[in-house]
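Issue 218. Parser rejects a valid record. Input:
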Amino acid sequence: MPSNRWIVLALLFAVRVSTGIQYQAVASLSPQLMSGFVLSIADIGLLIGLYHAPGTILAFPGGAIGAWLGDKPVVLIGLALMAIGEIAAATAPTWPILMGARIVAGTGGILLNVMIIKMVADWFTSKETATAMAIIGNSAPAGIALALATIPWIASSGDRVLASISVVVYLVLAFVALAAAYKAPSWPCRRKCSHPRRGPWAWESCSLSTMQ
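Output the parser choked on:
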């Protein structure tokens, strides 16, 4: 289990890269999707947007779900949903199933995003928080760039199913790495807060002095 917070940040960065890869996959595979399903540019835009659509519902309860089940289990559930959605999209025979697959994958992506940010906040305090958040904030764009550089090439070497399989492989690797290597920080002040107005979902902040 890594104890250095910068190593943990690198792990969480690599995990969150998966959301950028999967988000961009539709745009990178648009020629194959347009020919295979007889789609228009507007349809491709709809598929791209559906990935983030679950965020309108899950952004707020996602934090409560994390407090109930735990940060790591929720991220693992998110990665599993992303993989299931990607497999369903790769094998979808019809347009409605393809849309449903994107919603399932997007649901996993939203859960992952909500909890990853919280996990980074658990490991960093004071001035380091801004640096850590800036780094983790660039993980999704890094995933988009990686998808742009690799998915079209993979698709041109085989087909869109092969490209989707490559996304699933990354998701599986991220799942295994997080399951095996991540452990929440054990700072003395990391405990549930019983603040009468904020309720049981709040966590007390750790001061820099307690993290030495």
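Fixed in the parser; the record now loads. The first helix runs from residue 5 to 28.
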